[in-house]
Structures are given as structure tokens and as C-alpha cells.
């Protein structure tokens, strides 16, 4: 039997890839492994076809639609989900998550985790993006409830907060 080991939110998880009961089937996608096996339900399933961005996670530093990635192909990968952004010791939200709350950058919240993960991947690579950079990074995330205007404000707020921390030498 083949095995796959994935570091999810800093914890190595190992799965047996097989058709047998309790194993990860070769056709199982990462979103289903995260939600159904690891109970990381912050990663949402919207279209389950890679079109909406609701299932976005960070895989090896890049935002990906986890419904389009086979778990069996993730051996040795580093995956960060929305649950991995909060402080693991205190449960405190990340700066980006808190900026979304403080700026009311969500309505129903279903698409919000995917949007935050896309924004996080952008900010990890480019801590000072332009509005066009932000819009491009969010172009794969579809939201039916809210305009991206509030999302852009929240991301801008998070950028400012992160700059302040860097200036104080705390980041």
C-alpha cells in the first residue's frame, strides 16, 4: 500500500492510499481529505470543480483550489488551511483574519476562508502589493454576497498593521 505524508498546519499527517475502507482513495481530492478526515471544515466546498475559489488553501506557498488536487499527489507537501492562520497557542486570529472582521469584509462567510487564503499567499510573497496585485490575487475567488471593495479595504488594513509591526521590530 502506498502512503502519503502531508504537513497540514504544521502537523505531519500520513495516509494510506488504497481503495480499502478507511484509506484515502487514489481519486480523493485534498479538500475532502481536509474536511472529512481531518475535520478542517473552514476549507469550503463550493463548486467542487475549481471555479469558485472557496476551497483555496496554500500548498507549498501557493494558493490552490484544493478540490483540484489529489491527496495522493501531495506527498511531502506543506498545506496551510484557514485554521492554520490563527495563533496555535492562544487561538488569536491572524492580523489578516482580524482585519476582515474589523472591516466587515464578509457577509455569509462561506467564501471568506478562500479569499483570506488567497490574500495570505499574496502577502507572503509581496508584503506591499498594489491594488491591481490584490485584485489579480483574488481573481479566482467568487463571492455572491459582498463586493470585493470591502475585502480590498480589509487587506489594505492588514498590510498597514503588518508594516507597523515590522517598524516596531515585532514581525
Automatic annotation (TrEMBL):
Residue span, 2Fe-2S ferredoxin-type domain: 2-85
InterPro entries: 2Fe-2S-bd (IPR002888), 2Fe-2S-bd_dom_sf (IPR036884), 2Fe-2S_ferredoxin-like_sf (IPR036010), 2Fe-2S_ferredoxin-type (IPR001041), 2Fe2S_fd_BS (IPR006058), Beta-grasp_dom_sf (IPR012675), Diverse_Oxidoreductases (IPR051452)
GO molecular function: 2 iron, 2 sulfur cluster binding; metal ion binding; oxidoreductase activity
Keywords for this protein: 2Fe-2S, Iron, Iron-sulfur, Metal-binding, Oxidoreductase
Protein name: 2Fe-2S iron-sulfur cluster-binding domain protein
Naturally occurring in which organism (per UniProt): [Clostridium] asparagiforme DSM 15981
Amino acid at each position: 500500500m502506498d502512503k502519503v505524508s502531508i504537513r497540514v498546519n504544521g502537523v505531519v499527517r500520513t495516509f494510506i492510499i488504497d481503495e480499502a475502507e478507511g484509506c484515502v482513495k487514489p481519486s480523493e481530492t485534498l479538500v475532502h481529505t481536509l474536511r472529512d478526515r481531518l475535520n478542517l471544515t473552514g476549507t469550503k466546498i463550493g463548486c467542487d470543480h475549481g471555479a469558485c475559489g472557496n476551497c483555496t488553501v496554500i500548498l507549498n506557498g501557493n494558493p490552490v483550489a484544493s478540490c483540484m488536487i489529489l491527496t495522493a499527489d501531495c506527498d511531502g507537501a506543506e498545506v496551510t488551511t484557514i485554521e492554520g492562520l490563527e495563533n496555535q497557542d492562544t487561538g488569536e486570529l491572524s492580523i489578516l483574519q482580524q482585519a476582515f472582521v474589523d472591516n466587515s469584509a464578509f457577509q455569509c462567510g462561506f467564501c471568506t476562508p478562500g479569499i483570506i487564503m488567497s490574500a495570505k499567499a499574496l502577502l507572503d510573497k509581496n508584503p506591499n502589493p498594489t491594488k491591481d496585485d490584490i485584485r489579480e490575487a483574488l481573481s479566482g475567488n467568487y463571492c455572491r454576497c459582498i463586493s470585493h471593495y470591502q475585502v480590498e479595504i480589509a487587506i489594505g488594513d492588514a498590510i498597514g498593521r503588518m508594516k507597523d509591526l515590522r517598524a516596531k521590530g515585532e514581525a
